[in-house]
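Notes from the 1:1 (GR / supervisor)

We went over the backlog. Supervisor wanted to see one worked example end to end before approving the batch request, so GR pasted a single chain during the call. The sequence is below; no edits were made to it. Supervisor asked that the structure be written out right there so they could see what the output format looks like.
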Amino acid sequence: MSEKKLVMVVDDDPDLVEAVSMKLESKDFRVAKAYDGQEAMEKIQAEKPALVILDVMMPRKNGWVVCDEIKKDEGLKDISVVMLTAVGDAVPSTSYTHHDGKTTLADDYVPKPIDMGKLMEIVDDHLGS
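Structure output shown during the call:
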């Protein structure tokens, strides 16, 4: 039996982190959790997850920055990054732009509110579970 793959869930909404984590655990993944971008980077560097589910709008460091740091780090660049974004609807009221999304190196995107089935399909696509 192969070792369970580690997926990190990063969002400043604890309820969302818990819901996604429970779904991943039910699919036999190990889960790590972080609640802002700075905490996420520290844990990603320490734990090297196979995939990171990453919110865009977070305190201390936003998701675009975290994704950029992962993809530019030789030791982390092979980690799959799935961005969670409600930014499309909120662009006029935020400092985030579509340009940020187009220039990031994320492997995939899931809009908020999250379709859990779609998110699990994307995780399976990237990790081949």
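Supervisor's comment: Strands lie at 6-10, 30-34, 51-55, 80-85, 108-111.
Batch request approved.
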